[in-house]
Amino acid sequence: YKAMNIFHIPAYTDNYIWVIQSGSDISVIDPGDASPVLELINNNNLNLADILLTHHHFDHVGGTLELKKQINGKVYGPSGNIDGIDIHVSENDKVKTLEHEFTVLETPGHTLDHIAYVEKQKNIVFCGDTLFSAGCGRIFEGTFEQMHNSIQKLNQLEPETQIYCAHEYTESNLKFVISEIANEFIEDYFKKISAKRSKGEISIPTTLELERKINPFLLNVLPSDLQDLPKLEQFTELRTRKDNA
Description:
The protein is an alpha/beta fold and 245 residues long. Helices cover 32% and strands 26% of the residues. It has a 6-stranded mixed sheet with strand order 1-2-3-4-5-6. A 6-stranded mixed sheet has the order 7-8-9-10-13-14. A two-stranded antiparallel ribbon has the order 11-12. β7 (94-97) and β8 form a beta hairpin. The model has no long low-confidence stretch (mean pLDDT 97).
């Protein structure tokens, strides 16, 4: 079974455009900006196979139409109003790219059209802005309940699942977590991430197993004052505190 070579292209201030490579072919996830992708393609003589989109926000889809001019394959994405999608996908649909098969999960909350792509043999998920390391996306279009359910859907994946989210927010997320939870493991991890970031290294991918220890939005580790509340109330209160932090 083929290894999956994944790397990132930085875009905007803190976006990651994820790239899957197989030989001279690449597919990209959430190309919010075409120019760094075109630069990569031209400098390295690569072919662009497919584009996979997670949701309609401009910093994730902004480069799609320009990149589509030289695509060999298809643009996959959620139903709705994103320009340039060839194949609209929804829950449990399969997307095959560069000999890897992804299963689509619907993960509404941040936006109503949000989806994630899971590769079950390799335990990899591209989850856009639903789950971040030590955090989760803001709820712009959905409800707290939708976002909570979407995160718990991701929480059902295998513990070793590698989580490729679309922003570098880990350090600031951990600052919030530390302000809410006294936990030595989280404090040590924060120091590790701060050291990495000060050298310009990235904090992603993370794993589900690690997130369960550092990310209160999965509800596996919580501030002590929330522990007796029902799950949805725990989540709602946490997200509200983060919004107001």
